[in-house]
């Protein structure tokens, strides 16, 4: 398949704008930094040496945190921390009602600036704003420790190259400890953040010579970061490896011979990388993966609903490998991109039904936590799959259907939920997906037509692609 990066991720083109989008203020800072020679405090305008000073007045942590946090979302380039005060307040208020909904923010990129443009000089302005929003809206904060300042990866001190290639470059081995030190600084700055994910999708850790992942390099960096964070506070929860669990056409060159199903075959190189990390890690409080239900060719096999069985199979496999460490899906995708890289081909009802089916599949496989990607567009009335409308104007920040699904799943099926088997009429079994606890039943109609379903002893009608919550 060639080098993994973008060729392996049709879905990644969908989020390219979120990855590369930089505000005018950030662009201005970049121009300033690039125009200043390194050394002697060069490129340090707007930075501080006091990076480890606690931001704001975070609440003191209460006891040891749980390694699983539940179901939430990841902030991307445009989110509700900026915009009209009325609109951002509307989102914050909605989130506050779902107190504890996990919210993830990356260290650099996806709305956060370069945190350390020059060694020992920090710029946490954007990060402070994001973490502050999560805190104020009552969310459970999670930080993904990616990506790295330019000087850690062969770039110019004081400069920030926001191109895709630069942002996806990993620190060089001689800077792994510098990245671990930065992670520790971040932990001291945000003592209320108790959960950290180390890196993102093995970005920059591809071994061109051997045509495989550089799992040795990633694991070395992971172990250094893990050690640094635990020195700050032994109770901090740390997890990895955040590998993309790619699946292929079963006939593909790197298709696994032993791990496959109707949904395709796993990429053997991914399995090898996971096993190496799992064997050589110094510790982990939870395990992190991401991936899509469809193959790298963008094919949901045998169809978009049945393809989600891959998420169950992968979840079960990972839990076996790690002897049941809490499992997080940092990202999960069930809707292949169109020819233009966007996702506009499905109706919102169709999208929501397949997504609910994917969440059910992950939970059935033993996943404790999962994070939805794509909370907001910068502007415009249309936003396929978004959680709320753009917050640029006073009328924005209004809840969209996907938010109700994510928040509802978090409330109904928190970590530790014991799932129960419920009765489904034989003629409904092929057409509905069901997940049930002692109190709640989630039912999804997978057909593009109305049905009359009998689930858990009740008969009721369902619209095409309806997602229905039942109280027991």
Question: Could you walk me through the main structural features you see in this protein, from its secondary elements to its overall organization?
Answer:
The chain is 29% helix and 19% strand. It has 472 residues and is an alpha/beta fold. The strands form 5 sheets. Strands 1-2-3-4-7-11-12-13 form an 8-stranded parallel β-barrel, surrounded by 6 helices. 51% of the residues are buried.
Identify the notable features of this structure and list them briefly.
8-stranded parallel β-barrel; 472 residues; 18 strands; alpha/beta; disordered N terminus; globular
Broad shape: globular
Mean pLDDT: 90
Number of strands: 18
Helix content: 25-40%
Count of alpha/pi helices: 12
Compile the SSE list and pairings.
Elements: H1 10-14, H2 16-20, H3 24-34, E1 71-74, H4 85-97, E2 102-106, H5 125-136, E3 140-145, H6 164-167, H7 176-189, E4 195-198, E5 206-207, E6 212-213, H8 215-232, E7 237-244, E8 247-248, E9 255-261, E10 264-267, H9 268-280, E11 286-292, H10 309-321, E12 327-333, H11 348-364, E13 367-373, H12 401-412, E14 432-436, E15 440-445, E16 451-455, E17 458-462, E18 467-471
Parallel strand pairs: 1-2, 1-13, 2-3, 3-4, 4-7, 7-11, 11-12, 12-13
Antiparallel strand pairs: 5-6, 8-10, 9-10, 14-15, 15-18, 16-17
Helix pairs in contact: 7-8, 8-9, 10-11, 11-12
